[in-house]
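Q: Hi! First time asking for a complex rather than a single chain. Here are the components, and I think there are two in total. Is that enough to go on?
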Amino acid sequence: MSFDTVIFIISALVAVFGATMMIVQRNPVASVLYLILSLVAQAVCYVQLSAVFMGAILIVVYAGAILVLFLFVIMLLNLRGTEELGESPNAVGRFTKYLVAILLTIELVFIVKTATIPAAVTGIMNEAVDEFGSVSQVAKLMFTDFLYVFELTGVLLLVAVVGAVVLAKTERNESHSLAQDEEGADLRESAGK
Amino acid sequence: MRRAPTSEKALASNMVPVSAYLILAVVLFGIGAVGVLICRNMIVLFMSIELMLNAANLAFIAFSRSLGIADGHVIVFLVLTVAAAEAAVGLAMIVMVYRNRESINIDRFSMLKW
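A: Yes, that's all I need. Here is the structure of the assembled complex.
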C-alpha cells in the first residue's frame, strides 16, 4: 500500500465521518464544525489530485468565509440546538425518507462502478505535468477560454448581494420606521405634557 | 517554476485510482442527500446542500486530474462562486423567515405544499 493510498483512505474516512456527524448532530454549531472537518479532509484530496490552488480556495472560501457566515447566522438567531424541532409527523414518512436516500446512494455507487468511463480515466492517472493545477495555469484558463463565464460570475455575485440586501432591508425599514414612530410619539407625548 | 522535486515525484506516482475518488464523491453526495431529506433544521439542510456541491466538485477535480485537463478547476471555481451566492441569499431568507415565524423547523413552512 503506497503512501498516497494511506493518505487517501485516512482523508476519505475523515470526510465521510465529518459529513455523517454533521447531519446527525442536533446542535447547529457542532454541525458547522463537523462540516469544516469534512471540508478540510476534502481539501487534502484536492491537493492529492494536484489541485493545490483549488484546495487552498476551498479552505479559504468555504471554511473561512461561507461557514463563518453560517456560524454568524446561528449566533444571530441565537440557536442552541434545544429548539423543539418536533418529530416527523409519521413513521412511514420518516422510513420513506431514509429508504429513498439510501437507495439513491447505492444507485450512484452502482453507476460509478459500472459506467463506461473512457480508458484514460480508469486505472492509474496520467502523469501530471509540473504546472498542473497551479495558480498560473488556472488563471490562464480563467482569463482566456472562460473569460465570459468569469465575467458572468461577477454579475451573479452582484445579483446575490443585491438580493441579500433587499431581503434583509424591507424588514429593517419597517422596524426602523416603527422605531421612528415610537420616538415621534414619545416626543409628541412629552411635548403635550 | 520552482517547486520541490519530491512533490513532482508524488504527483507522478499517485496510485489511487480515479474510481476511488469518484466513490468518495458519491458517498458524500449521498450523505448530503440524506441530510436534505431528514434534517428539519433549515440551517443544517443548507449545509447539506453545500456538502452536495462539494461532492460534485471533488468529482470534477478527480476527472480533471485523470484526463490532464485543467478545465475542471475553473468549473470548480464557478461552483464555489455559486455556492457563496446561494449561501448569502439563503441565509438572508432564513433570517427573514425566522423573524416572521420564530422557528427554523422546515416542517412549519409548508404553505406552498399541496
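A: Chain B touches chain A through 80 residues (CB under 8 Å). Let me know if you'd like any chain examined more closely.
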